[in-house]
Amino acid sequence: MARIQIPIDALTSRLNLGSRFEGVRSQSLSTRFANLRPISEFLNLSRLSKPANFGEVQNRVNYNLGYFSSNYVAVGIMLLIYSLLTNLTLLFDIIFVGLGLFAIKKLDGRDLELGFARATTSQLYTGLFVIAVPLFIWANPISSALWLVGATGVSIFGHASFMDKPIDTAFSEEAV
């Protein structure tokens, strides 16, 4: 049976997604958030307006995704924190796995001796896996991930499509 080949380039070339995220990988965290726009500019209600057509929506989204990119990352991080705080089982499981892996790594390959029992690192990893995986499934991470994707997408693309470009930018584009 032949595998189906999906041309990802053909799907993403129209949105220019390849070049949009190239600079994100090479930037440090401090330079990433150096161009964080002020909240008064990000939530300027006087610039909110309904776009006239889909072409204007595309222009606004392309402009605002570049201009407010750091603000949108901050919105995504805040929604991620909110989603973890509302799903405490998932948060507990993430902390439990992180601390468990850290504690096993601290043993440096030696066995854990508790006086009455001895556990190898392989047994400790297996025990961590046996406890964490059912807890992870019970925490329903797929629901949280889908909510996070939906809430982030609606928030970011809603803001980007309804926030009009600044007047000086609009005039500079007409002159060209």
Write the topology of this structure.
Blueprint: H1 8-12, H2 17-20, H3 22-26, H4 29-32, H5 39-42, H6 54-67, H7 69-86, H8 88-106, E1 112-113, E2 118-119, H9 121-138, H10 141-162, H11 167-175
Antiparallel strand pairs: 1-2
Helix pairs in contact: 6-10, 7-10, 8-9
Descriptive notes:
Helices cover 69% and strands 2% of the residues. It has a two-stranded antiparallel ribbon. The radius of gyration is 23 Å and the shape is elongated. The mean pLDDT is 85. The protein is built from eleven helices and two strands, in the order ααααααααββααα. Helix 7 (69-86) runs antiparallel to helix 10 and helix 8 (88-106) packs antiparallel against helix 9 (121-138). A hairpin with a 4-residue loop joins strand 1 and strand 2. The protein is an all-alpha fold.
